[in-house]
Amino acid sequence: MSDTAAKPRPQFRNISISNLTQYRLPWAGKVSILHRVSGVLLFLCIPLVILPLFERSVTSEAGFASLHALVSFPLVKLVLLALIWGYLHHFCAGIRFLVLDLHIGTTKEGSRKSAVSVLIVSLALTALFGLKLFGVW
Predict the structure, then answer these.
(1) 52: three-class secondary structure by DSSP
(2) 96 Cβ contact partners less than 8 Å away, ≥ 6 residues apart
(3) Where are the alpha helices (DSSP H) in the chain?
(4) pTM
C-alpha cells in the first residue's frame, strides 16, 4: 500500500492558561492590543458620552454652564482623562501602523523602537492634557 493516507498534523500547545502570566509579550504586541482597546473605548463612548456632552455644551449658555459644573467633579475628570488617553494612543498607534504599511520600520528593532515611542509619546501627551484638565496650569 502507498503512503497516501493523511497523517495527523502536529499540534503545538506551547502556552497554557497557567503560563499566560509568565509569557512576555513584545512591545509591538502590547501597542497593538492597546490600540484595539482604545478603539473599542472610543467607539463605545461616542454615543454614550461624547455626543451627549457635546450636545449639552452647544445647545445653550445654561447647558454649557451645567456641563462646566459637571466637569468639575474629579470622577468625571478621570473619565475624560481615560478618553483623552484612548484618543491619543489610538492616534499615535494609527500613525505607527500607517508607517508600517509603507514598509518602514518593519525590522524587529525598528518595530520595538516605534512601539516604545508610541507609548512614550501618547503617555506624555496624556500627562500634558491631564495637567491642563486638572487645572495645574
Answers:
(1) helix
(2) 31, 114, 115, 118
(3) 27-45, 51-59, 61-71, 74-101, 108-133
(4) 0.80
